[in-house]
Structures are given as C-alpha cells and as structure tokens.
Amino acid sequence: MDSLKAHTLDMPTGPRMRGRQSAEDVVHDNTRRAQFAYRGVQAYAQHTGTDELATQIRDLLGDLFHLGDAADIDIHRCLKVAREYYHAEIRGE
C-alpha cells in the first residue's frame, strides 16, 4: 500500500488539472483524479476501519449502491456514465 501511495498517488506539482491534450497532460490529470478518489476512499475507510485499498473500494462501492437506493438514483446508470467518462479521460478526450 505504501509503495502504491508513494509511487502512483503522489500529488503532482503545478496546476490542479491541465486540461490539455499531450500525453504528459493526460497522465498528470488522471493521476490527479486517482488521488482525489484515493482521498475520498481514505476518508470513507476512517469510518469502517478497513486497511486494504481493494476492500475499501469494494465497501465504498457497495455503500454507494445503498445510497443510490435510498436517494432513488439509478446507480447502474451512474456506473455506466462513469465508465464512459473514465474511458474518455484515459484517451485524453
């Protein structure tokens, strides 16, 4: 976990999101997105006491399904759109 955090999720320096299209900008912006998600998962994990990142993500996703049910939100549609956004972002679109 520490090597993942240190290697992959270090906060890049410079502007928050570059929004340009070079390969370096895409990597920068997607690293930022990964860190934003990591911070959210870590905040959630403080309430569950889970240590392993994969377990934290699974638990959070499961609870997001419960939240979707409670708020009458189509979580499957949210996942579909999120997947589309993810693919566009890794292509630099």
Structure description:
The protein is an all-alpha fold and 93 residues long. The protein contains 4 helices and no strands. It has one domain. Helix content is 72%, strand content 0%. The longest helix has 26 residues, at 23-48. The protein is flat.
Q: Please tally the β strands and state the result.
A: 0
Instruction: Give me the secondary-structure category.
Output: mainly alpha
Distance between the termini: 30 Å
> Can you count the helices?
4
* C-alpha-based Rg, rounded: 15 Å
Order of helices and strands: HHHH
List the domain count as a whole number.
1
- Helix proportion: over 70%
Q: What share of residues are in beta strands? A: under 5%
As residue ranges, the low-confidence spans are 1-7
The pLDDT mean sits at: 81
The largest sheet is: none
**Shape type:** flat
Please outline what is shown here.
The chain has helices at 2-8, 23-48, 53-70, 75-90. It has 93 residues and is mainly alpha-helical. α2 packs across α3.
Task: Pick out its properties.
mainly alpha; 4 helices; disordered N terminus; 93 residues
How would you summarize the topology of this molecule?
Blueprint lengths: L1 H7 L14 H26 L4 H18 L4 H16 L3
Helix pairs in contact: 2-3
